[in-house]
Amino acid sequence: MSDLQVILCISLVIPLVSALGVLVFAKYPNIRDICGPIGGIISFIAAVKIASSIIQGDIVSISLWQIAPGISFSFNVTPLGAIFGLVASGLWILASIYTVGYMRGSGEKNQTRFAFYYAVAIHAAMAIAYSGNLLMLFIYYEILTFSTYPLVTHSQTEAAKNAGRLYMGILVSTSLLLFLPAVLWVWTISGTLDFRQGGILPSDFPVIYVPFLLAMFAFGIGKAALMPIHRWLPAAMVAPTPVSALLHAVAVVKAGVFSILTVTVYIFGIDFLNASGGAIWLAWVAAFTILASSIIAISKNDLKARLAYSTISQLSYIVLGASLATAAAVEGAALHIVMHATAKITLFFCAGAIYVNAHVKNISDLDGLGPKLPWVFIAFFLASLSIIGIPPMGGSWSKFLLMAGAVDAAMPAMLLVLAVSSLLNVYYLLEPVLRAFFKSVKKDIHVEKHVLTIIPPVITAAISLVLFFAVDWIMPLTNLMVVQ
Amino acid sequence: MPVFDNIPALLVVLPLIASAIVSLLPSARVAWILTFVVTLLCLFMAFELVDIVSNTSSFSYAFGGWEPPWGIVFVVDGANVYLVLLVAFISVVSTFYAYTILAAEIAVEDLPKAYSVWLLAIASLFGLSMTGDAFNLFVFLEISALSSITLIALGAGQDRRALLAAYNYLIIGAIGATFYVIGVGYLYAATGTLNLTDIVDRLNELGTNQAAITGLAFMLAGIMVKAGVFPVHIWLPAAYSFAPSAVSSLLAAVATKVAIYYFARLLFGIFADITLLVEFFLLYILMPVSIIGIFFGTIAAIYQTDLKRLFALSSIAQIGYITLAFSLNSHSGISAGFIHIINHALIKGSIFMAIGIFAFGIGKRATMTSMQGVGRQMPITFAGFVVAGLALVGMPLTAGFISKLYLFKALFETNNGILVAIIAFSSVLSVLYLWKIFEVMWLKEPTKPLKIEKEPIMAYLPVWMMVAVIVVFGVYSNDIVMSGIGAANALIGAN
Questions:
Q1: Cα dihedral sign for B79, B80, B83, B89?
Q2: Which of A9, A370, A394, B211 sits CB 3.0–4.6 Å from A437 for a disulfide?
Q3: B280-308 confidence digits (pLDDT tens)
C-alpha cells in the first residue's frame, strides 16, 4: 500500500476505532469522551492530506475486492468527495466536544451508546465521501440511516419512537424503491458504477429517459430532503441537539445532497445533463422547496423546528446547483456544502446551548436573553449572515456562484428565487437575535454556563468568517470537479 | 477412484440404507450421530461432484449398467450440481440444528424414527435433483411427499393443528403428483420413452404433437403444486408453520427449491422446442401468476402475527420472484432465478432456524405478542436473524442483494419500466413486516417478565453458519453468480 492509501484507510477507520474506544472505556466517562475529539483530529488531518493530494493531481484510491462484475468494494476520492470528507471530519472535532458539554449539561442517559453510534455515523459519512462507486455510496448511505436511528430515538419516549419510525420509513423506503433500482439501472446500461469525470452513461442513452433516471435519484436520495419527501427531517429534531447539529445539519443531509451532486457530476456528467435538458424540472422542484420551506420556517416558533425548515431550504440550493448543471452552478453547490455546513452547525450549536444553559426552546421566549449569553447570540448572528449570504461571511461566495450558474444556464427566474429566499432568511434567522438583544426581559430566566457548549459555536462562527477570506483553499477542488 | 464414479448413486443410497438402520437404533443420541455422519459424507461427496462436473460439464450415471434410454439414469450438469451441493449443505446444517431443537419439540422415543424419516426425505431430495428419468422422478416425488408429511405430522406434539396441515399436504400433494404422472403417461404415449434426454430427441422428430403438449401441461401443473407456486401453494403456509422447526427449515430451504429446479428444467431443457406453448405459458400464465403471488405473499405476511406462518407466506412471495425471473425467458432471467434459488434457501433456512430457537427460548409459539422483547434476551440468535432479514429485502453485502442485482438486470433487459416499478415496490413492502418484527422483538418491553432458556450454542451455531454463507456470497459473489450462469448455460446454451 502506498502512503496515500494508508492515509485513506486511516481517515475511514479512525471513526470506527473511536467507536470501539467508546465501548471499551464505557466505565471511564472522561477517557470515553475524549475518544471523539481525538478521532476527529486524526481523521481531519488525514482528510486535509487527502484533499491536498487531490489538488496536486494524485489519485487516492484503494480497491479491496470485487462484489460483482464491474463493481468492487473500493474507495476512490473525487474532488467533491475530498470536500465532503473535510467537512464531515473537521466539524466532527467540534461537534464531539460540544456533545460532551451538552450530554453532561442536560444529564442525558445512555451516553456511551450515544457516543458509539455517533462515531459509527461519522464513519459512514466519511465512507460516503470517499466511496469508489455508486454501490459503495448506496451501501454506506444505508449504514448511515441505520446508525443514526438509535440517535434519533435516543430518549426512547413514544414521540421519539414515532419520529424514528417516520425517519426510517421515509429514508429506507425511498432508497429501496427508487435509489437502488436507479443504481441497478445505471449498472445494467453502463456495465460499471465507477465515478468518472463527464459521467458513465453510454452515449446512446435515450434522452427521454434522463428525467426519469434523475427523478429516481433525486427522490430516492431522501436525505436531500427535497419536497415532498422532507418530512423526516423536522421529525428527527426530537433527537438531542448534537445529533441535529452534526447529523441533520451536516453529515446526514449533506450526504444526501453530496450524493445528488455526485450523481449529476460523475454519473450523468454535467455537459450531458445540460444538453439533454432533463434536469430543468428538478430546478423548479428545488426552487419550490427553497421558497416553501422558508415560508414554513417563518411560522415555526420552536427554534430547532425553524432551523430544520431552514435546512431543507438550504439543501435545495445545492440540488438547484446540481440541476442547473453549469460549471459555476455545480461549483457553487459544492462550495455551499462547506459554507452551509459550518453556518448551520453553528446555529444548531447555539440552539442547543440556549436550551442547556437557559432551558428555552421557543423563539418567543428569547426576549432579553442576549446579554446573558452574549457569545452564543453573536455566533448565531454571524452564522445567520453567512446563510443569508452577506459578505464578509463564507456563504456569500456560494450564493454568488449559484447565481452566476443560474445566469449561465439561462434561467434568470432562479436568480429571483435566490433573492427572495435571502429576504426570507433575513426575516426568520435574524428574529431570534433581535429579540434576544433588543426586547426587554419578559421573565427572569436562570442561566447556567456550560463552557463546552459555548466554545464550539463561537469557533464554527469564526470559521464561517475565515472561509470568506480562505475560499481559495477550497476552490481548487471545486475547479477540479468541472475541468475536462 | 472408483467410488467417485458412483457418487450420484451413493448420494441417494447411503441415506436410504442409513434410514433403515437409524429406525432400529434404541438411543436418540446414536441415531443423531449416525444421521449427522451420513449427511456430512453426502456433503463431502457433493463437493466431489462439483469438482467432477466443473471438469467434464456433464456427468451421467446409468444404474446397474443399463445404458439410457433403457435404464434409469442420473444426470448431473451445471443446472443441478449446485442444487445437489445446496441440499447436502442444508442437510448438514439442519441436522446439526435438530440436535437440540428437534429433541426439544418431539418425544424422545420418537426421535430415532424421526431421524429415519429425515434421512428418507434427504435421500428423496437428492434423487429429485439428479434423476434424468421422468417416471423415476415421480417415485422420488412420492417418497419426498410421504416423508415430509410424516415429519410435518410430528409437530402435533406441540400443536395438534400439525395433523391437519399434514393431511392437507397429503391430499393436495397427491393431486399434484397425480397430475404429474398423468402428464408422464401422455408423454410416454407420444414418445415411447421416459428418459428426459431421449424425450427431447423424440419430440424434435414428432414436431407439434397434441399428446405431448397435453402431457407438458399436466406435468407443469403437478410440479407447480410441489413447488408452492401461487395459486397452488395452499398446502404450504400451514405445513411450514406447524412442522417442527428443524423440519420447517429443511423443507422451506430445499424441498420447494428442488421442485422449482425441475420446473425450470422441464420448461427450458425438455420442452424448449415447443416454443409456442412455452412462450405462451411463460408470458401469459407464469408472469402474471408470479406477480400476483409476490404481492399476495408479501401483503398476507404483513398482516400475519404468527412468525412461522409469516415467513411461510413470505416464501410464496420469494418463490414468485424466482418464477418471475424464469418467466422473462432470457439467459439473465434464468441465471437470476437459479441464483435466487440458492440464496433464498440459505436465507429462509436460517430464518426458520432462528424462529425455532426463539420459540424454544420462551417455550411457546413465536407470535407478535409472545416475542416482545425476546430479541434482547437472545442477542446472538437475533443478530443472525436480523442479517438474514436484511438479506431477504436485498440489502447490499448480503446474498439477497446479489439476487436482486441479477433479477433487476434481467428485468431492465426487458425494457419494461412498469414491471421494474412493480417489483421495486414489492421489495419495499417486505421491509414492512420485517420492521414490525424488529420493533416487537427489540424495542418493545415484554408484557410480563420473561422466563427464557439460554440460547443453546448447538442451535445458534448452525444459524450463524448459514448467515456466514449469506454474507460471504454477498461480499464475494463470483461463485454464486457463476453457478447461476452455469445453470442457464446448461439449460439454454451459453449467452
A1: negative
A2: A370
A3: 888 888 899 999 999 999 999 999 989 89
CA-based R_g, chain B, Å:
21
Q: Does B475 touch chain A (CB under 8 A)?
A: yes
| pLDDT exceeds 80 at position B391 | yes
- Is the four-CA dihedral B72, B75, B80, B83 of positive or negative sign? positive
Query: Average of pLDDT values for A211-218?
Result: 91
Domain ranges of chain A: 3-482
pLDDT in tens, A262-307: 999 899 888 888 888 888 898 899 999 999 999 998 888 888 888 8
From A68, A73, A177, residue closest to B402, measured CB to CB: A68
How far apart (Å, rounded) are the C-alpha atoms in residues A484 and A387?
31
Interface touch A68/B427, C-beta < 8 Å: no
User: Over chain B, what is the mean pLDDT?
Assistant: 88
Indicate the range of A244-248, B149-153, B355-359 predicted with least confidence.
Answer: A244-248
Q: Which residue has the cell 415560508?
A: A295
Q: How many CB atoms lie within 10 A of CB A79?
A: 21
Which of B396, B424, B477 lies closest to A177 in CB terms? B424
Task: Please tell me if residue A187 touches chain B, with a CB cutoff of 8 Å.
Answer: yes
Per cent of chain B over pLDDT 90 is 40
Dihedral sign from CA coordinates of A135, A136, A140, A141: negative
Answer yes or no: do B413 and A184 touch at CB < 8 A: no
Rounded distance, CA A431 to CA A388, Å? 13
Peptide bond just before B379 cis, omega within 30 deg: no
Chains A, B: CB pairs < 8 Å = 60
Residue B23 in contact with residue B113, Cβ under 8 Å?
Answer: yes
Q: Is A448 helix (H, G, I), strand (E, B) or coil?
A: coil
pLDDT number for residue B293: 92
CA distance B305 to B175: 30
Chain A residue numbers touching B477 (CB-CB < 8 A): 67-68
The arithmetic mean of pLDDT across residues B158-182, rounded, is: 91
Residue B479 near chain A (CB below 8 Å): no
Domain ranges of chain B: 274-495
pTM for this predicted structure: 0.87
pLDDT tens-digit map of A216-252:
999 999 888 888 888 888 888 888 887 877 777 788 8
Residues of chain B with Cβ-Cβ distance to A172 below 8 Å are: 431
Interface membership of A157 toward B (CB under 8 Å): no
- Digit-coded pLDDT (tens) for B54-70: 888 788 888 877 887 78
Residue B1, pLDDT score: 55
The CA distance from B366 to B97, in Å, is 18
Tell me the DSSP string of A265-294.
IIII-HHHHHHHTTTHHHHHHHHHHHHHHH
* A481 grid coordinates: 470537479
Half-sphere exposure for A194 (CA within 13 Å, toward CB) = 15
Type of residue numbered A354: I
Could you tell me if A146 lies within 8 Å of chain B, comparing CB atoms? no
- To probe the interface with B, which of A180, A205, A216 has the most B CB atoms within 10 Å? A180
CB-based contact, B443 to chain A, within 8 Å: yes
Place of cell 444538453: A275
Taking CA–CA distances from A68, the nearest residue in chain B reads: B477
Contact B424 A172 (CB under 8 A): no
